[in-house]
Fold Thyrotropin-releasing hormone-degrading ectoenzyme.
Amino acid sequence: MGLNDSSPGAMRNGRGLSDQWAESVVVRPRTTERHITVHKRLVLGFALSILTLIIVTAVAVVLSVRFEECGGRDRDGVTGESGSRGSGGSAKLNGSRGERTGERGDEETVQPWRNSRLPGSVRPRHYDLRLAVYMDNFTFSGEVSIELECINATRFIVLHTDRLEVRCGAGGRPANRPGGGAMRIHRHFPYPANQMYVVVLHREMKPMRVYRLNVSFDAAIEDELLGFFRSSYTLQRERRYLAVTQFSPIHARKAFPCFDEPIYKATFTLTLRHDPQYTSLSNMPVESSSLSDEDGWVTNRFARTPRMSTYYLAWAVCNFTYRETQTDSGVTIRLYARPDAISSGEGDYALHITKRLLGFYQDYFKVQYSLPKLDLLAVPKHPYAAMENWGLSVFVEQKILLDAEVSSSSYQMELTMVVVHEICHQWFGDLVTPVWWEDVWLKEGFAHFFEYVGTDFLFPKWNMEKQRFLTDVLHEVMLLDGLSSSHPISQEVEQATDINRVFDWIAYKKGAALIRMLANVMGQSLFQKGLNDYLLSHMYSNAARDDLWNKLTQAMRSEGRDIDIRGMMDRWTLQMGYPVVTISKNQSEQLPTHYITVSQEHFLYGFIGWNFFNNLYSENLQWQVPLTVAVGNASRVCSESLIWINNKTETHRIGQMDDKTWLLGNINQTGYFRVNYDLQNWKLLIQQLHTNPQIISIGNRAGLIDDAFNLARAGYLPQGVPLQLIGYLPEETSFLPWHAASRALYQLDKLLDRTDEYSLFSDYVLKQVASRYHQMGWPTNGPGNEGNVLQASYQTEELQRELIMLACSFGNKQCHRQAVAYISDWISSNKNRIPPNIRDIVYCTGVSLMDEDVWEFIWMKFHSSNAVSEKKILLEALTCSDNIFLLNRLLNLSLTSDLVPEQDVIDVIIHVGRNPQGRNLAWKYFREKWDILNARYGEALFMNSKLIGGVTEFLNTDRELNELKEFIQSSGVGAGPALPRALEIVEGNVRWHRLHRRQFYQWLRKPPNPGLG
Ligand SMILES: [Zn+2]
């Protein structure tokens, strides 16, 4: 599942701020990260659900539950099978949890439906699902016939339904099938607390026998982006509707009665009946299609699926058109979208890369794509960036349709990565599914990791896995995971409400970072071999993390390398956080000089001073750290070696060293940890960067910057070290170290921009930026250079953009003049000649520096623009104004009118908060409107935590801390993990001011000579 990402860059008040950076501290957890286009409807869910229930109750018609005993054979006459059909390693059903067979009187004492998990006494083998879809009144009626296998003798069938009122016919009816008989139903009832439906039989079902349960139901096609829902778009001024499913993680139960846990894999045959003006799609191709003589309706029967989890089932009813292509192995790929988008070719790019990606993954995993076709469906509204339903993946339009004329390269990059992510899921997720949601990172971590690997395949020059991964994944998630309010990546979940929470940054980004670390320890070929074995062993089934560790360990053993991968990885997946590894040259007299001392401790931003969890965790946590170390001097780097660190402190022998050699740990930042050194070593590394940075790899240059700033922020290093380190930036010609630096600087900027001595900081930054900024200049907007990243040199464009953003944000006069000139030209000529890649920077700078007319001009353009990406940056530019009156007006219009799309309201509030002139306003507004905001967005955990993080991250005074505490006490009950996290971040901000600000400014007032420490 793809989460919605924030836009790649945003500016406030002339100070640029990378969204990714800004939000990272905040967490965009839950599902949400990157990505969320949650709709108001989603959040109105609760109210709607009640309404729906009433409607459903009123229209529910069918409802006969019939039971047949098929005497150990399934209905197709296949001989009876033993209960262990599910293959799949350690993948086991949930167990029968003490359910005992029994007398009718036991029912009240057993009550398996009171458990939040299904009892596991029966499991589904096949669903025959028939639906009639009424698009005129947005309802559907269905019948499902579920073939069940009994595992343990039981009188109870417990399965999931939500908002489906299911009534059973009184008693069972005799079956007409030879060899089978109907079983009488004692009683049946819903158990809404666990979204379950219970059928109690008169007598027990017997293990290893197969039964059939028939249920009929009616329901509404919801307007809230979950289950089987509807949305609309406009075509030739006419409103058109479509209906599509979103079942992950627990919404299949809203569309049909089912065993809605990932372990209950089954096959599905779906039949859809609907008005012939619509097309219908599902996971599999249409097997037969017929028109009714009576009403002219079409009935599409789709081919039987392979075994799969309920949450990957999907269907859609729409009047989209498509373009298609075919892979060499004969898989048909179609992209379905609005007819106007298809005819203008906006889907062609995604179609093209999907075809290449299927080939790439088949080669990499050595496992064929399993289905005869893959449809990509572009929908106007979706709760996530995308959803990887097997054979029918659904994308929100902004993540799959591309208009190359107006799209920036970052838009294209993001879109590409979403597609790469979802296609990876066809293997990691669809084919092999995590046993339970606690290991959701098994699929999301892999898909996120392969975003970088797969994008490198498509565009090798982007260098994603070796470079961009570091800033966008590793550095970002270490910010979050360095908080004591973090959590282990594998986290226990039982309640339905907790399941949404597991889709957070930790699952996606830490998962990807750990997988990358492991892949590097194993080596590419063994890693691939292990994955291949894992996929083959668990295909069409489920797997837990131990299954993966076993296969990877076996792969290593096959080459004579004996590493207990489970033992190693359990430390990383079952413990929260990560270590800081400190490397120092031997200082003791007893050992010769080529020994180093290495120690590890739990890295925490709050490691000095008070912290709730500190004592509890940080003392006891230890990791098995694969530390790579290189030694170098002014002219060369000597061999790197891998050292396993298992204890708190260890001594290791390393190559020859003298006073001039430095040590460098975590080569290319493949490990998920920070590295610290003794101060003398920092000094030598900084000297090296100043004199000849290229000796150290690009990845390590970025890593040194990120580690130094964060170690200083947490108090592990003097504040001057990172400042001195970035003194080498004028020599830096690569994008990545600049990107790492700018992320760290914007982070500091949030802490400092209301301090008296702020100009000391901004002047220092501008001094580092100036020469490279002037050298790179501004992009030209000539023909053939319209932001098309396929042709352009991506790294150069990105560096240019980064430098312009830094220059304009921190107040470079020439940068301001250039931005103003662009805006003036646009207004006077009514032609937008601003290169797409830097429009957000120019708009924001213009609004912040120019008068009110410019704000009105941008406001007007916001209303008249049709391109999704353009609209978003215009709206964000409006938040850059210095004028409190305008900001206030924007906030009020956002919340109370239809002028701002509902999913963008939260972004408006957050961006106003990023503007130093708007901070107090946003913080006050947030508290005043909390009841309204919480009612609207509270259910969407991601939106909620994004909002809370966004308006609190810049708070850094005692007074603001107290305001936050008061707010939490009075209003914050039940807001999820976002408020405790916000509190920890703000406490960290206040602590930094108390402990470190003086030292920081002292260094800036009198920096030592460059490179001399
Ligand atoms: Zn995903």
